[in-house]
């Protein structure tokens, strides 16, 4: 799986759900490298999240991630602990593509995964988000 852009970042986990979807939403990363950093979610599955970010982060490092999904017209904030699996420069100067894998959901993993499932199902059924090509 890769991002739908010229600069590809591999996302390797297989998901039994519909293909990863491009998401138009924000993400806030808390990595211990100073103040929280904002980014834009570009791809999502139950196992991984890809985003465009304004700062490189160290591979293998852990971070906390907050991001928003809209499901059935309601906005939901999700909170997860993630591992940084890849980081590479993006086409826009000062931007980076990051691939993060979910390590733990805070505070409730089943509820968080249910929201991701609902979001992916909604998007696959004709939501406003576009499917990412494999």
List the helices and strands and how they pair.
Layout lengths: L24 E6 L6 E8 L3 E6 L8 E10 L2 E16 L6 E11 L2 H16 L10
Antiparallel strand pairs: 1-2, 1-4, 2-3, 3-6, 4-5, 5-6
The biggest sheet amounts to: 6 strands, antiparallel, barrel
Percentage of residues assigned to helices: 10-25%
| CA distance, first residue to last residue | 5 Å
- Tally of DSSP β-strands: 6
User: What is the mean pLDDT?
Assistant: 77
Strand order of the largest sheet: 1-2-3-6-5-4
- Judged by helices, strands and strand pairing, the structural class is mainly beta
Low-confidence stretches: 1-19, 129-134
Report Rg: 14 Å
Shape summary: globular
Q: List the helices and strands in order.
A: EEEEEEH
Strand content: 35-45%
Description:
Helices cover 12% and strands 43% of the residues. It has 134 residues and is mostly beta strands. It has a six-stranded antiparallel β-barrel. It is globular, with a radius of gyration of 14 Å.
Summarize this structure as a short list of keywords or feature phrases.
134 residues; mainly beta; 6-stranded antiparallel beta barrel; 6 strands; disordered N terminus
């Amino acid at each position: 799986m890769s991002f739908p852009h010229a600069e590809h970042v591999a996302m390797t986990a297989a998901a039994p759900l519909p293909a990863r979807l491009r998401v138009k939403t924000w993400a806030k990363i808390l990595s211990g490298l100073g103040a929280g950093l904002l980014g834009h979610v570009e791809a999502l599955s139950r196992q991984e999240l890809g985003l465009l970010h304004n700062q490189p982060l160290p591979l293998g490092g852990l971070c906390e991630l907050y991001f928003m999904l809209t499901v059935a017209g309601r906005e939901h904030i999700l909170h997860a602990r993630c591992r940084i699996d890849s980081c590479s420069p993006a086409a826009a100067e000062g931007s980076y593509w990051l691939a993060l894998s979910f390590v733990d959901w805070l505070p409730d993993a089943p509820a968080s995964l249910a929201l991701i499932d609902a979001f992916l199902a909604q998007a696959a059924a004709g939501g406003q988000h576009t499917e990412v090509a494999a």
